[in-house]
Amino acid sequence: MADASNSTSIFTLQGAGASSVLGSNPTQEDRYTVLLPDEFSGHTDSLAFFAVYDGHASDKVAEHASKNIRRLLTISRELRQGNYESAIEQAIQAEEKELLQGFWAGEELFAVAGSTAALVVVNLTRGILVVANLGDSHVLLGEADGANHTSLKVERLTTSHKPEDAGESHRIESAGGTLNTDSGVSRVGGLNVSRALGDLQYKMPLKDIGEQSLSSGQEKACVEPTKKGDLVSSYPSLKRYTLQPDRRYFLALTTDGVTNTMDDETIMHQIAGSKQEGMDADRVAAKITEKASKEPSSDNATCVTVFLDGHNVRDQENLRKVKILLDALDEMGREVDYFALDVSYQELHRTLSIVPPGTFRHVRCFGLLGTYDDGRDWMHLPEIRSRSKTILSLGSTLGSFQRPEAADFLASFVTPESNSSLLIGLDGCKDADRVLAAYNDPEGINRRFIKHGLERANEILGPDTFDLDKWAVIGRWDAAQGSHNQYYLPSEDVSLADKTIPAGRRILAVKSHKYDADDRDALCRRAELAVGDAWASKNQYNILYLEKP
User: Gene3D superfamilies, alphabetically (predicted)?
Assistant: First the structure.
């Protein structure tokens, strides 16, 4: 039997990181944003936001936009209602208004400087991806498929906005502009992009200030003051993409310092390969920008990398250890019945969907809906009792028990009349630094998993029982107990029922015991079980085959 974990999100954010390099340029005009779900307060769904900005003529606009657009999105009513396209458009137009106000207040660079942008909103709960861009910064998507997720489909989700494009040149000319080709490349004044933040000299109302006051850029654009409209547009291209729960995805947001040096396929295959090698998202992004910066006359290069796993992929990972065993038994021709146990029908169905009928020739897979107690009772049914059984617990379940309770739990399954044995997994690592790094990951994946317990409590007790914005999750290593403990921590005094919990009071959520050799021996002695065989990995994960002596 095996247990499966619960989650309400279709997707898990496995990592997000970023890197920017100067290249051959003397100044850095790129900026980026990585906004994780913990930073979106009060949202029902789990959201994340990522962006890159490529400034030109100065870093002023890119810097302003990178700080302001993230703020505008976190307070956006449209975003809360799931209208992500509207939320992005409104944030961009609000940013444009603030840039214009800044210009009138004396920041003249907002008229002659600007920035491209590539933006992504991800709804992890529903598997929705919304992409927007201005100019030639891009969003690339790698979709991994196949049994081992080795087949990668690469797609560019954004549109390159260039003056020479038919639709863009028509819009520019209709607004009173003329393409400048003096450099051999079509430009709007001095710009080689036709949509951007800032560049207010090419937009209303500054564009319409009269023929006697044209800037040098406006003169290059041959502005006709009698025609209305923006030569450089601030309206982004938008795309909504539905993510598939049985897929693994890799996202890359890049400035043109990356995409001008490598093709999309090369970028995404390098990202997927680096992730497969175990690199974190920051290092993967750095590997991309480092490669781009080695090109002659390289530009500023920025890359944001995002790793997303659908829940079916997570289920496959959860079942991976068991499936290795089932594959081996099937290859040996052993007639085996495998029963997965879970209290959630949805999770049970998802687990078994990984091994549908026809997966094996000799192994048959079934589901048991119920608790551990139900599973024990099922084992004592007359038609089951006489059969030889091996109970599997290869996940983290045993570590969550107090040590004496873990031994009693194991002993309850292997009784003289049960005709049973056990195959269990135990984490033996007690290196405090390694344990803390594993549980307190920079992307906050584990913290969100623990905080999900409060979300589940709200589903049961009422939506306002726990204000999630007032609760944090912290982890501590307990050397005396050999356990990693995770706590709920209120940021201010909170009332629950008729009691007040003071700010900073730690409430134990999960205790994860680690089992070194002495602990494993003590566990077996108390459970009155003998180790029939044992295996250990280099990272101190142990598998024990236990039976009655």
Answer: PPM-type phosphatase domain, Vaccinia Virus protein VP39
> To 10 degrees, the CA torsion angle through 264, 270, 273, 274?
-130
Q: Report d(CA 131, CA 139) in Å as an integer.
A: 7
Provide the token pair at 474.
Answer: 């912290």
Q: What is the pLDDT of residues 392-425, one digit of tens each?
A: 987 778 899 999 999 999 999 888 777 899 999 9
Cis ω for the linkage preceding 205 (within 30 of 0): yes
Distance CA 232, CA 134 (A): 10
Spatial distance between the Cα atoms of 133 and 35, rounded to a whole number of angstroms? 17
Alpha-carbon gap, residue 487 to 504, rounded angstroms: 10
Q: Pull the structure tokens for residue 214.
A: 């044209």
CA dist., res. 506 & res. 383, Å (int): 48
Pairing assessment for the beta strands 114-123 and 47-56 based on DSSP bridges: antiparallel
The H or E element spanning position 393 is: strand 389-393
φ, ψ for residue 325, nearest 5 deg: -65, -45
Measured CA to CA, the distance from residue 421 to residue 414 in angstroms comes to: 6
DSSP 240-260: EEEPPTT-EEEEEEE-HHHHT
Q: How far is CA 517 from the centre of its chain?
A: 36
Q: Quote the CA–CA distance of 180 and 365 in Å, as a whole number.
A: 68
Residue 125 DSSP class: T
CB 121 within 8 A of CB 87: yes
With pLDDT > 90 as the criterion, what percentage of the chain qualifies? 61
Alpha carbon distances (Å) from 67 to 18, 64, 391:
16, 6, 53
Structure tokens at 58: 């100065």
Residue 135 has φ and ψ, to the nearest 5°, of: 90, -140
Q: 44-59 as b/e, with b when 16 or more CB fall inside 10 Å?
A: ebbbbbbbbbbbbbbb
Round to whole Å and give the CA distance between 238 and 86: 10
Q: Which amino acid is at 14?
A: Q
Length of the chain: 549
- Between 473 and 211, whose confidence is greater? 473
Dist CA 329 CA 458 (whole Å): 43
Q: Answer whether 0.90 is exceeded by the pTM.
A: no
The set of residues, in sequence order, having a beta carbon less than 8 Å from that of 469 and lying 6+ positions away, is: 41, 42
The structure tokens listed for 543 are: 């598998």
Q: Which residues pair with 115 in a beta bridge?
A: 55, 197
Q: What is the DSSP letter of 548?
A: -
